[in-house]
Amino acid sequence: MKISTLTFLFLILISFKSLAQTNTVIGTITEVKPSFAGEHALTVGKENTVLILITDLKDASGKTFEINKEYHNLLIETKDKTFVLNPKYAHKTFEITYTINGKGWKCINTLKAVKK
Amino acid sequence: MIKQLFFSFTFMLVNFYTVAQSVLGIDISGGQGTINWTQVKAAGYVFAWAKATEGITFTDANYATNAVNGVSAGMYMGAYHFARPDNNPTTANAVSEANNFLSSAQTHISTCELTPILDYEVSPSLTWTQQTAWIQTWMNTVQTATGIVPILYTSGSIASSLGNSLASYCKLWIADPDGSATVAPGASYLGPWNPNWAFKQYSWTGSVPGISGNVDMDVFNGTLAGLKTLMGCTTTPPVCHYYYANLPYSTSFENTWIYDSCSIGANRIPDKYWKNTIGGTTPNGNDYWHRDDYTGADWTSVTTGSYSPTGSAGTHSAKFHNDPPPASSTGALDLYINLSATGTKQISFDYIHAEASPSPFSFDVMLSTDGGSTFPTTLRTITTASFTTWTTQTFTTNATSATSVIRFRVTDKGTNDVGIDNLNMATLTTTEINQLATEGVTVTVYPNPNNGNFTIKTNDATKHIHAEVYNQLGQLVLSKDGYAGEDEMQINDLSEGVYFVNVYADGIKIATQKLLVLNR
User: Fold this and answer.
1) What are the percentages of helix, strand and coil residues in chain B, rounded to 5?
2) pLDDT (tens digit, 9 = 90+) per residue, B179-199?
3) What local confidence, expressed as pLDDT, does residue B234 receive?
4) Which residue of B has its CA nearest to A66?
5) What is the rounded average pLDDT of the residues B449-459?
6) Of B40, B102, B353, B488, whose Cβ has the fewest other Cβ atoms within 10 Å?
7) With contacts defined as CB-CB under 8 Å, which chain A residues touch B12?
8) How many Å apart are CA B508 and CA B301, to the nearest integer?
C-alpha cells in the first residue's frame, strides 16, 4: 500500500474523529460510583448528568482514564480499592465534553476547569 | 508530528491485520448519529448490533434506519435491548420490556441475521436468583415470538454471579474491553459460561470509517462460517440478502417501502422478503412496482392512469406504473416465501386495473420453486378483463419448496396503472380445503312443491351427496346418502308440510332448500 494511500486513509480517520457528535455539560462532579464492567460513573451538574469515565488501557495500572492528560488523575484509588474524586477537584466547576457510544453511554472525552 | 504519524500508520496496519484475521463487528446506538454503513462494511466489519429499545417504553429513533441500511450494505445486523430491571424489577416487567423490544425489532429479526441481544448492565436491588429469573423471562418471551434464543450481553462480574441455568440456555457476549480482538476473555470473566463465549466486546474507543466518535468494537469467537452457523444460515446468503417469509404471510403495503439492495436500489420493496425486478424487452425507469404514493423521478406522470381508491385495505397498495407505455413494458415484484409446510396453500389479493383490452396486456402470478431461477408455473393470468373496482383473486398451490418465489408480473402497453393490495398467504385447514373443493357445486331440488316424492340433483357426480330433511320444528325427519358416482338421488313418501332440505357434498353443506309437500 502506497504511503499516499495510507496518508489519505489517515486523514479520513482524523476527519471522522473531528466530526464526532460532541456534547457539553458544565458543573461540579457531585458523585462517583462504580459502573458497568469496571468503569466509573460521574454525576455532574445541577441536572445530575451521569457520565462514564473510560479507563485508559494504555496504562496497565488501570488508574488513569481516557481524558485529556492533565486530568488523568481525576479519580484516585482508596485503601479499599474503590475510586473517589481526587480532593483537589472537589467543588471545581468543569466544562465536560462527551460522546454517546454504542451502548448509549455518555463517555467523557475532555474536561476543562471553568470559573464559576 | 512525524512520530505521531508513524504510530498512527502502525495502528492502522495492525488494525487492518486484525480485521483480516478475525470476524469483527461493532455495536452502535442512535446517539452516534447517521452512520455510513457502506464505509463500515468496506472497512472489513461483518456484523453490527444496533440499539432498538430500552426499558418498557423507549425506542431508539435511528434503529430501523440502521437495521435496514446495515443490511443493505451487506452487514449482518442485529438488535439489542437495554434492560432496566432497576426501574422494572418484576418478571411481569421483563415481559413488558421484551414486548417493547419485539414491537420495534421483530420485523427485522430472522434466521441468518445477527442474534437478538439482551443488554444487561444496570444494578437492580434484586438478588442474583431474581435477576436470573428476570433475564430468563425476557429471553423466553423473545424466543417464543421469534423462535430464536437471544444472547446475553453483560460484564464479567455480572456473568459470574448469574445462575448456571442461563449459561446452559443462552450464549454470552462478554464486555471485556482490554483492547484485544485476539485475546480470549479470562475464566473469571465468563463465570458459568467458561470456557464458552460467543462474542467479546474488546474496546469502547475504536475508530471505524463511516461512524463519528468512539465506537464499541466486537469480535466473534470463531470463523465466519461459524458465525453463519450460529445465526442459522443454512445456505450461503446471496449478496443482496434474500429472506424467505414464513406462512402465514400478509401485507397491505402500508409500511414505507424499503431499499432494494439486490440490483435496482431505491425504496422499491414492501419489506425484506421482496425483490423488485424488471423483465421487459424495452424496460425504462417507469417499469417498476412501488407503493402507490411513490414520487421518485423514475415514475413520471404518476397521476395519469391512477386508480381509485388507492387501497382496498388501508390507504396504500402496490402499483405498477409505466409512462410512456412502450411495447412489452414489463415489471415484476417477487415475494420470497417458505412453502415447505405440508398442505395446500391459498394465495389471495385484491386486484384493480381499470382499462378495457389494452394490447398487449398480461398480469401473471408465477411460481418459482428454485429461489427465483426459473418460473415454470403460472398460478393466475389476467389478460383482457377490466377490473374497475378492487376484486379479490384467490387460488391455491401445493408447492412445498422452502425457496419458493411468487412473482407478480405485469406486461402492459396500456395507459392505466395496475394495483394489488391486501395480500394473504396461508396454509389451508382440512375444512377450508373441503370447502374449496365444493365451490362451484350447484344443487337443484325438484319438483317443488311436490307430492312427497322429489329429486336432489348436483352438477358433480364425483362428490358424495348426503341429504337431511327437517320439519318446521327443526326435527330431523329423514337422512339419506346418495350412491357413489351418481349426481342425483330420489326421496319419497314425505307427508304434507313444509320442510328444509340440507344438502352436503363430501361432508360440506352446500345448500339449504325450503320444500313444500302438498296433496298427498
Assistant:
1) 20, 35, 45
2) 999 999 988 889 899 988 999
3) 61
4) B205
5) 87
6) B488
7) 6, 9-10, 13
8) 51
C-alpha cell at B369: 420453486
Tell me the helix, strand and coil percentages in chain A, rounded to 5: 20, 40, 40
**Active site residue ranges of B:** 27, 119, 121
**How far does the CA of residue A84 sit from the closest CA of chain B (Å)?**
19
Torsion of the alpha carbons at A70, A75, A78 and A84, rounded to the nearest 10: 150
Q: What percent of chain B has pLDDT over 90?
A: 43
What is the phi/psi pair of residue B469, to 5°? -115, 125
B164-178, B253-267, B303-317, B450-464, range with greatest mean pLDDT:
B164-178
- Nearest CA among B471, B467, B458, B461 for reference residue B498: B471
CA distance A23 to A109: 10
What are A27's strand-pairing partners?
Answer: A94
- The rounded Cα B456 to chain-centroid distance in angstroms is 47
At residue B105, the 3 state secondary structure works out as helix
Does residue B157 belong to the interface with chain A, where contact is any CB pair within 8 Å? yes
pLDDT for the residue numbered B301:
79
CA–CA–CA angle B79, B228, B39 (5° rounding): 60
Amino acid identity of B110? S
Please name the member of A54, A66, A102 whose beta carbon is closest to the beta carbon of B26.
Answer: A102
Judge if the upstream peptide bond of residue B177 is cis by omega within 30 degrees of 0. no
Q: Among all chains, which residue has been given the C-alpha cell 460521574?
A: A42
Beta bridge partners of B502: B468, B512
**pLDDT at position B263, please?**
55
Beta strands B418-427 and B249-251, pairing class: antiparallel
Which residue bears the cell 418478571?
Answer: B91
Would you say residue B40 has pLDDT above 90? yes
Beta-carbon contacts of residue B59 (< 8 Å; ≥ 6 apart): B52, B53, B100, B103, B104
Q: For residue B174, what is the nearest residue in chain A, using CA coordinates?
A: A37
Omega of the bond leading into B447 within 30 degrees of 0 (cis)? yes
Q: Which residues of A touch B117 (CB under 8 A)?
A: none
Task: Tell me whether A21 touches chain B (CB under 8 Å).
Answer: yes
**Phi, psi values for residue B258, rounded to 5°:** -110, 170
Query: Please, are residues B471 and B446 in contact by the beta-carbon 8 Å criterion?
Result: no
Which residues from chain B sit within 8 angstroms of residue A6, using beta carbons? 9, 12
Burial track B84-105 (b if 16+ CB lie within 10 A, e otherwise): bbeebbebebbbbbbbbbbebb
CA dist B430 and B423 (Å) reads: 22
How far from chain centre, in Å, is Cα A37? Answer: 16
> Which region holds residue B58: left if phi is over 0, alpha if psi is between -120 and 50, else beta?
beta
Residue-wise pLDDT tens digits, B224-278: 989 988 988 765 444 455 678 888 999 999 887 776 656 555 667 888 788 887 6
CA proximity to B408, closest of B332, B348, B328: B332
Of B493, B509, B394, B500, give the one whose Cα is nearest residue B458. Answer: B509
B161 close contact with A: CB closer than 8 A: no
Residue B311 has pLDDT above 80, yes or no: yes
CA quadruple B295, B424, B333, B49: dihedral, nearest 10: 80
Mean pLDDT throughout B337-359? 87
Q: What is the three-state SS of B399-429?
A: CCCCCEEEEEEEEECCCCCEEEEEEEEEECC
Whether pTM > 0.80 for this model: the answer is no
Q: Å from A6 to nearest chain B CA? A: 7
